Amino acid sequence: MNVLVFADCQDGKILKSGIEAVSYASRVVEQFGGTLVTATYGTEDSSELEKLGEVGAETLFVSKTNQGTPWSLTEYLSALVRERNIELVVLSNDFTGKAILGLLGSKLDAGAVNNAVDFPKNENGFTVKSQMFSGKAFGEVRITSSIKIIALLPNAVGTVSNPKSLSIKYFEGDFNSRIKIVEEKKLETGGTVPLPEAELVVSGGRGLKGPENWGIVEDLASTLGATTACSRPVSDLDWRPHHEHVGQTGLAIRPNLYIAIGISGAIQHLAGVNGSKTIVVVNNDPEAPFFKAADYGVVADAFEFIPKFTEALKAHKANNA
Amino acid sequence: MKILVAISKVPDSTSKISFKDNNTQFDEAGIQFIVNPYDEWYALVRALELKENLGGAVTTITVGEANADPVIRKALAIGADDAVRIDAEPVDALFTANQIASFARDKGYDLIMFGKETINYNGSQVGAMAAGLLDLPYVSNASSLEVSGSSARLERDIQGGSQVIDVDLPAVISASKGMAEQRIPNMKGIMSARKKKLEVVAPIEAPRHTEVLSYSLPEAKSEVKLIDPDNPTELIELLHKEAKVI
Q1: Calpha distance A203→B21 (Å, rounded)
Q2: Min Cα separation A156/chain B (Å)
C-alpha cells in the first residue's frame, strides 16, 4: 500500500502533530508493505526537515510556493497522489487536516476517516478505529474506496524513532488558494505548546470564582511546563479566551496529564478530556461527578491546595534536575 | 443574499451514549435530538443576521429521514425562511455532501454554511466535500464572517492563532464558536415555523465509501485514588512514579 503522509508546518516549524503523523504512516507501511512518500511545505531548513527523517520519512517533497490554504494544499497533495500511485493518505486531525480532509476526499473520490486513534486493520476489509460522539465512544470504520484517507488524532499513538536518510525533492508548481490571507494573528500563549498538542494541561472551572484568581492555575502550569485550558462556562463568561475551552463544543484533547481545578465534570466537559491518560481532579465538593472519571482526586479548597502543590512541585523539580 | 445552511440532527450534548444489536447500532432510546450546536448557534444565526442586514433568504438543508423533521422545524422557528430535506440516511460523508452539492448546484446561493463539525460523528468533512464537489472556495473553522458586496471577510481559526481571510462569493464556510450568539426561538417563531415550507427531495445516486462496523465505549476508569490535601508530595510521587506523566 503506497502511503502519502502530510506534515503541517507553521512559521517554518514542522508541527509535532505532523511528526506524529509521519511516524504513524511509516508504521502503516511496515505493516502493509508499499512505499512511503512524505510531503510538507513552508520550510527549507534542514534541521526541521530532518525531524521527519528521524521518524521514518525517506522520500520527502517540499513545496516552496504553497500558501498553506485548504485548496492549495489539496491541489499539492492530489498531484502527489496521482504521480506516486498513492492508495492511502495520512493527515493529522488538526486544524489544517480538518480543513483539507474533505476537499481531498471529494477530489480523489476517497472515503475518509478522521479522529483515528489506532493503526488500520485488515481483517474485515480495511478498517480504522475512530473517536466519535465527542470522545464518548469509538467506531471501527471500514473504508471501501480504492483511495483512502485517515486523519490521525494528535497524541493518539505517539512517535517512535525510525531514522532514515532523507531524499528531499522540491515540488514545483503554483497552486490556486482561492482565498486571500490578509493577516495572521498569534494567540498570546506565552510560548507554551498549543492546546491540541500539549502533553500536560492545567484547566480551571467556575469554582475559581473569577478571572482575577487564575494566577494559581498559571503558576502551576508554568511550573509544570503545561498549557492552560478552561471549561465552557469560564469561556462563555469571558474569564478566559475561547481558544482555551475544552469540552464537547470546544476542543477535544488527549494529553498525558489533565489537572482539573474547580470543574464539576459535566458530561459535555468529560467528552472533551476523557481521552487524557491521567486525570487529576481538585474540587471542594466531594460529590463532584468529575471524581468518577479521575485517576487521582483531591477534595480541597483549590486556593489552599494548588499553591502548596505548586511549591512542592518546584522542590521536586529542583531535586530531580 | 441567498444563503443555504446545512443542519444536522444530533443527540443532545448531555446524552449518555450507548449501542445496541451487538454494538452495531446507536441506541436512540431515551435520546433527545437537537440541531447540531455548530450548525445552529453559529452558522444559522449568522446567516439570519446577514439576511436581516442585507436582505435575502435563508434556506436550511438536511440529509435525513422523516424523524429529522422536528429539528428542522426548530431551525425554522429560529428564523430560517424555508427548509429542504433530502430523504436519505446520512451514513457517509461523501454521500451526504453529494446530496447537498447536487441540490445547491445552479441555485445561485451566495453562501453555503456548515457547522465546523457535528457532535455525533465529529467528521468535519461534509462542508469541505461539498465545496470540493461544487468547486467553490472553502473557509474552515471561521469565527467571524462579514459580507460586503460580492466578497466576504472572515477570521479562521488555525493552530496557535487565526487568519483574516478575504474570499469572493459564492463560497462554502464552516462556522466555529464566536461567529454568532445562540438565539432562543420565541412563540411567534415557533407558531410560524409550522406553516413554513419543508420540501422533501429524493436523494441522488452517490457513492458510499465508509461504514461503521461496530462501536465501543471508552474503558471505564478504575476507582479514583483520593489524596490527602495536606500532603501534596504524595500526589507528586504518584504522578512521577505510578502514572509516569511528570
Answers
A1: 38
A2: 14
- Residues of chain A with Cβ-Cβ distance to B162 below 8 Å are 184-185, 187
| Three-state SS annotation for B74-87 | HHHHHCCCEEEEEE
- Along the 321 residues of chain A, how does pLDDT read in single tens digits? 999 999 999 989 999 999 999 999 999 999 999 999 999 999 999 999 999 999 999 999 999 888 899 999 999 999 999 999 999 999 999 999 999 999 999 999 999 999 999 999 999 999 999 999 988 899 999 999 999 999 999 989 999 999 999 999 999 888 888 999 999 998 876 778 888 889 999 999 999 999 999 999 999 999 999 999 999 999 999 999 988 999 988 888 999 999 999 999 999 999 999 889 999 999 999 999 999 999 999 999 999 999 999 999 999 999 887
A133–B contact, CB cutoff 8 A: yes
Please identify, in words, the CATH class of the domain defined by B2-215. alpha beta
For residue A259, CA distances in Å to A265, A298, A301, B160 come to: 12, 11, 15, 21
CB A260 within 8 A of CB A232: no
- Closest to A283 measured CA to CA, from A265, A310, A257, A307: A265
Contact assignment for A277 to B245 by CB distance below 8 Å: yes
In order of start, what are the domains of chain A with their CATH numbers?
3-171 (3.40.50.620), 195-320 (3.40.50.1220)
Provide the residue ranges of all domains of chain B, joining segments of one domain with +: 2-215
State whether B158 and A10 contact (CB < 8 Å).
Answer: yes
Q: Specify the pTM.
A: 0.94
Using CA atoms, how far apart are residues A208 and A102, in angstroms rounded to an integer? 40
Q: What 3-state class would DSSP assign to B170?
A: coil
